[in-house]
Amino acid sequence: MSSPEQARDSGEARPRKIIHIDMDAFYASVEQRDNPDLRGKPLAVGGSAERGVVAAASYEARKFGVRSAMPSVTAKRQCPELIFVKPRFEVYKAISRQIRDIFAEHTEIIEPLSLDEAYLDVTENLQNIPLATEIATAIRAKILAETGLTASAGISYNKFLAKLASDHRKPNGQFVITPRMGAAFVESLPVGRFHGIGPATTTKFNGLGIFTGLDIRNQTLEFMSANFGKSGAYYYWISRGVDERPVRANRIRKSIGAENTFSNDLAAFDALAAELQPLIQKVWRHCESTGTRGRTVTLKIKFFDFEIITRSRSVPTQVSNHADLERLAVDLLRHEMPLQKSVRLLGVSLSALHDQGPSEPQLDLPI
Question: Of these residues, 117, 146, 244, 336, which one is catalytic?
Fold first, then answer.
């Protein structure tokens, strides 16, 4: 059996045509579109209170180093003129559905990653447009015409490179990585730029003397598997520009969760258990509205010093009602008592899901 790289080189498989569409600063751009007074100004979507977190930042704010998931106090320190706007998730979801309808004019093979980005397989497309670049241009133009928002696009023969390409001409641009360009494009790429490689894995790579795509390519498959487990083979192949993952329409959602940051740190069991209740209700409302059920309940605890722990419990059958979800979540909290440190955030999620309706993008629900 030939390797993915050999198959690609020998022409055994017809190269796919994959587009990655990524909306530009989506939440922030929606707010600037709907409020002209915010245009051209540094903007953060999120809570401005001391315990708030940035959900999204406009490009004007990013120039100051403001980014998503940054504590609001840090963002304000880096950009004193930063304007905070509360998120309007129902508005963002409605626009996301509008954009998805535009995608569907060209292909049925759409894999949403979140409200603001998706993969499209246009190898065979509904309008018989021969070039994927023309499809991406048409999609971006229609998004702009119908929503007033800009999108960037990456076009390539696999998902990994398409996503890299969409970052290459941001904002409001597109870029193509052809089969001939693929391996060379990855060579000089820092490992931290690889999709799916976070700070901890980057540190591990660097500790092994691996800093770029070329450094990964110089390792054996055995070395990569020994040091990175199942992910090692994936890193080995993408460093060669090879990614055989298909675009999966109606991608299965892995979990549904809700979390909340408190205005004051909490340590007492009763106070923390009370804060769990609206989170549990939020998760269960989603389960009821979609018919989703799951078997694994996870409790997330973020302490005052930002240390995070998670505790999970899986049950043999699906969690079938609100009371069972509540009991499992509260029991996980009770098992951690007494806590050695005060808590700034709690989260609850349900995973190992099944029986859901049409797929929605994964989204941690705000409370």
Answer: 117
- Spatial CA neighbour of 110 closest among 31, 232, 18, 29: 18
Residue with tokens 């490992």: 191
The residue type found at 151 is A
pLDDT at 69: 81
User: Which of 72, 48, 77, 43 lies closest to 60 in space, CA to CA?
Assistant: 43
Q: How far apart are the first and last CA of the chain?
A: 51
pTM of the full structure: 0.73
C-beta of residue 90 within 8 angstroms of C-beta of residue 51 = no
Is the confidence at residue 332, as pLDDT, over 80? Answer: yes
Q: Which of 188, 130, 186 is nearest to 161 (CA)?
A: 186
CB 300 within 8 A of CB 321: no
Q: Is 117 a catalytic residue?
A: yes
Q: Quick one: DSSP state of residue 38?
A: G
Lowest mean per-residue pLDDT among 6-15, 89-98, 147-156, 162-171: 6-15
CATH number of 255-366: 3.30.1490.100
- CA angle (138 as vertex; 132, 140 as ends), nearest 5: 105
C-alpha span between 142 and 103 (Å, rounded): 10
Residue 3 has pLDDT above 70, yes or no: no
Enumerate the domain spans of the chain: 12-179, 191-235, 255-366
The CATH T-level fold of domain 12-179 is Alpha-Beta Plaits (3.30.70)
Query: Is 191-235 a domain of CATH 3.20.190.10?
Result: no
How high is the mean pLDDT of the chain? 89
Inter-residue contact 48 to 261 (CB < 8 Å): no
* Closest C-alpha to 97, from 359, 354, 367, 315: 359
Q: What is the rounded CA–CA span in Å between residue 27 and residue 66?
A: 14
Question: pLDDT digit string (tens) for 172-206?
Answer: 999 999 999 999 999 999 999 888 788 889 999 99
pLDDT, mean of residues 128-146: 96
* CA–CA separation, 253 and 190 (whole Å): 30
